[in-house]
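The authors assume throughout that readers already know how a fold can be written as discrete tokens. The format is easy to grasp once an entry is in front of the reader. For illustration, here is how one protein appears when written out as sequence plus structure tokens:
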Amino acid sequence: MLPLLKKFFREESGATIVITAAAFSVLVGFTALAVDSGVLFVEHTKLARAADAAVLAGAQELPDTARAVAVAREYAQRNGIDSINLGISFSHNNKQVTVTASKDVNLYFARVFGKSSSQVYGRAVARVAPVTAATGIVPIGINDILLPLSVGQEYLLKAGAKDQVLGWRGILEYPGANGADDYRNNAYNGYANKVRIDDVEGKAAGNMSGPTVQGIQDRINICTDGCTWDNYQPGCTRVTLVPIYRDLDPAYNVKIVGFATVFLERVIGQGQASKVYATYVNATYSGEIDDSITDSYLNSVQLVR
């Protein structure tokens, strides 16, 4: 190839040589632009995804900003973002977190023109908002007389008849639950239909305690990873959604006033005398949201574009 080029240049006039040299320069420039632009695009995409992962992980810890920073940094480092190139900030109400990141990228053909590297930037914003409706709710919950909830605090979700002097803590009767199998299934898998804040639910008869508690016990038993409330595997069956309710009358109804995520600790006793204990955990859930809700104990995390 080189001998042919040398012969070509010897045989062509000076003007042609200049034009040809200029054309080669343009070709090299376009090659540099195409290759290095592709490299920058790939690295920018990686950085943007890493920022998304970091901001989503951090937002789940809000409103605890110190914890949010620690978790966001951890996820950023897992995805190759150096902490020196990472920025984390919060909105005035601590319901939104922003992650910014940058990275030096080595260039290739652009070195011909004296540029050896370039920076790419990534930015992601996530917010938390109160959940107003959800599916997968079990038929036991938290009486609102126990509010406010505290992360790591254990609560009695289901009590025996003699233990309800501090507020009703029985079995909720969701629409369509007609027999023992329905109650056991709702406890094990969660209620399939949507439950909303301000819904009024019935109180189930005492004979539904047995199948409901059995479903809860099965959820506890199926976990063999040694999970605890502060260290559990993703998808652990002991972590479940429960309603927060207000007792409307002694015999018939409760009103849903919120939701929470709990870690099922243990079941004591049998039938109507059984008790279910669980610990409140600060987990998030993907559901319908309503920013007007205050004092929420269950939030959804969303990327803000």
User: Anything to note?
Assistant: The longest strand covers residues 117-134. The mean pLDDT is 86.
